[in-house]
Amino acid sequence: QVQLAESGGGLVQAGGSLRLSCLASGRTFSNYVRGWFRQAPGKDREFVAAISGSSGSTYYKDSVRGRFSISRDNAKNTVYLQMNSLKPEDTAVYYCAAKISTVVTDNPNGYNYWGQGTQVTVSS
Question: Residue 111 in contact with residue 97, Cβ under 8 Å?
């Protein structure tokens, strides 16, 4: 059974930093795409960042580019999201996702597996 488990969320002041982790178990995703999404109250789930399996190419939502950084450690089957210069509008539940494909997409419907989510709250 495949499981994704996020950790690292919390409450931080604007301008602060957090590092999210997502550990996968049940299968390896070394060659496949891993992603991060977020969902704020009353809003749709939106793409934040993704990383390819083979080349490690990264992709970002425009509003987080330059502030967030996605990375992966295939030996640990883990993906990370380093979030710097956090803003109140970054407040949301953050979800990690994985897809059994090498094609990166920002569409949440394209992902096969999801974590349970971790709350990130940025105070002003």
Answer: yes
Rounded-to-integer distance, Cα 78 and Cα 6, Å: 10
Q: Distance between CA atoms of 28 and 40, rounded to whole angstroms? A: 29
pLDDT in tens, 94-117: 999 999 999 999 999 999 999 999
Instruction: Give me the residue label for tokens 């803003």.
Output: 87
Q: Which is nearest to 32 in space by CA: 51, 18, 19, 11?
A: 51
pLDDT of residue 57: 95
**Helix, strand, coil % in the chain, rounded to nearest 5:** 5, 50, 45
Residue with tokens 């080349």: 55
Q: pLDDT-derived band of residue 82, with 50, 70 and 90 as boundaries?
A: very high
Residue 48: how many CA atoms within 13 Å on its side-chain side? Answer: 28
Selection from 84, 110, 115, 120 nearest residue 8 by Cα: 120
CA distances from 65 to 41, 74, 115 (A): 22, 23, 23
Residue 55: is its pLDDT beyond 90?
Answer: no
